[in-house]
Write a structure and sequence with these properties.
6-stranded mixed beta sheet, alpha/beta, 26% strand, Rossmann fold, 24 strands, 2 domains
């Protein structure tokens, strides 16, 4: 009896970009009804590999075979016709179109030039119901939350009746219940014979959903194992090429008096009477489900949105913050959850992004001292181990982890006294996460006040000395004994 041929097979894939060898002879196979997880650090080649599979990038060498048929390289339409659907980490939606229109974009149903809008809306509603995520099919995608946009991306792939489904960080913007529903859907797809390539930095998900796991490092295939044959620590070591003694570094900082004090902060129904304080040397966690008001609270503190009421103090001094410029001058920094849309100017060079909030420090009489700027960037890049082809490379060419380091570097150069991290490790590999955790702890050790906003509950429990939980715009609880707390404790408070 012969075994069935692989549903998908990639052989000897190689790809280089100017100054970077992204893939070196990578091969793997996927069977029908299997989930293959692909893991690795940022810059390991995962994104390039799936773009080759999808026909979005033409490889320098190698073959892609789906259902025993070799696909012509660099032709996305051929990959789609062969049954390959990709849910990219970076959304590919048309903001001005509705959710339903995006789901069926390029596959519209119609007759004699008339589109069957009502049928598309009904089918989109069924897909969103299947996902368990509330999305209005008639809503413009520009008006949807990040989690809802992610649902539209997933629904679009499901609508294509794909035989090979590639998911790149699909739960990055989903709440735990929404993620659980997605996993249940993946198991249903497996039973239907769909092969799933699952890319995630969240190792709990990998161990929970994958049949096999493949590790990439520096563009090369390191190992592939059945998931039952590897441990979490062993997988991390394969990914980073070295042992990490622990996932979360120990905090060594002395907690002092209050530095940032927020009283009765309000904005419509989004933030309703939020009050808290962050002490000297403290890492305070702020968590809750998507839409709970966490990010909205951070934006009010930073002056990115106007507030209806409330007061903000720093070191006992009342602050009048009406814009981000006021916050920056006062010594407050915000690393936004959307580093690409709000933290960086992707088309501009890496060094220019680093320099933006610091130009006044290197200028005299309106003239920028480029020598000082270059020296400061070199020092920051060495300290944070930022990997870029060159300082003049567009920020868009960096991996997610290195982009986050650039955002962090510009605020470290500012030497702000309050640093707000909003989802600082979203879409970042375990090695880069550890480095960012070390930087967070270093800021606290310097006596800074750190507010850490995160949806990843292990991260909150592992990094924070206290945790505040929000629901529907209000703080619903505070956890002071973090060492004894569980994720279930946080979820109970987050559900209101």
């Amino acid at each position: 009896m012969t075994s069935a041929p692989p549903l998908l097979e990639l052989s000897g894939i190689e790809k280089s970009f100017p100054g970077v060898c992204a893939l070196r002879g990578v091969s793997f196979a996927l069977s029908a009804g299997e989930v293959l997880a692909i893991v690795g650090e940022n810059g390991a080649g995962k994104s390039t590999l799936i773009k080759v599979l999808a026909g979005a990038v033409e490889p320098d060498a190698g073959r892609v075979v789906v259902n025993s048929r070799e696909l012509p390289p660099g032709l996305p339409a051929e990959a789609r016709r062969a049954g390959v659907a990709v849910i990219y980490q970076e959304f590919s939606l048309v903001p001005a179109l509705t959710a339903a229109e995006n789901v069926f974009l390029g596959r519209e149903s119609g007759w004699l030039g008339w589109l069957h809008k009502r049928d598309e809306r009904r089918r989109a509603e069924e897909l969103f119901r299947q996902l368990g995520i509330a999305v209005d099919p008639a809503a413009r995608c520009r008006d949807l939350t990040v989690a809802q946009q992610q649902a539209v991306e997933i629904a679009r792939a499901l609508a294509a009746d794909a035989r090979v489904l590639v998911m790149d960080e699909p739960t990055a913007a989903l709440t735990p219940p929404e993620a659980d529903r997605l996993f249940a859907l993946i198991r249903e797809l497996k039973r239907g014979g769909v092969g799933v390539v699952y890319i995630s930095h969240r190792l709990d998900e990998v161990f929970g959903i994958a049949d096999r796991v493949m590790v990439l490092r520096d563009g090369e295939h390191v190992a592939t194992h059945p998931i039952r044959d590897v441990t979490r620590d062993g997988l991390i070591e394969l990914m980073v090429g070295r042992r990490l003694d622990q996932e979360f570094p120990k905090r060594v900082s002395e907690i002092g008096g209050p530095r940032l004090v927020v009283r009765d902060l309000r904005r419509g129904d989004e933030v309703r009477g939020v009050s808290f304080e962050v002490r000297r040397g403290e890492v305070l966690g702020l968590t809750g489900l998507v839409g709970s008001g966490r990010t909205e609270t951070a934006r009010l503190i930073f002056g990115a949105d106007p507030r209806d009421g409330g007061a903000i103090e720093l070191d006992g001094r009342p602050l009048r913050i009406e814009s981000p410029r006021d916050a920056i001058r006062a010594g407050i920094a915000l690393l936004t959850e959307d580093r690409k849309g709000q933290g960086l100017i992707l088309a501009h060079p890496v060094r220019d992004n680093f320099a933006l909030p610091n130009l006044g420090r290197w200028s005299r009489l309106g003239v920028l001292d480029r020598r000082r700027e270059r020296a400061a960037f070199r020092a920051a890049a060495d300290r944070l181990r930022i990997k870029a082809a060159n300082p003049g490379a567009p920020a868009a060419t960096l991996s997610g982890g290195n982009q986050q380091k650039v955002v962090l570097a510009k605020w470290l150069e500012r030497n702000c006294e309050v640093v707000i991290f909003d989802e600082p490790t979203r879409g970042i590999d375990v090695g880069a996460k550890y480095e960012i955790y070390q930087l967070v702890n270093a800021l606290a050790a310097q006596g800074k006040a750190v507010l850490l906003i995160s949806s990843e509950l292990p991260e909150v429990l592992g990094m924070c000395g206290r945790v505040l939980v929000m629901h529907a715009g209000r703080i619903t609880g505070e956890i002071t004994d973090v060492a004894r707390a569980t994720q279930e404790d946080i979820l109970r408070l987050a559900m209101g």
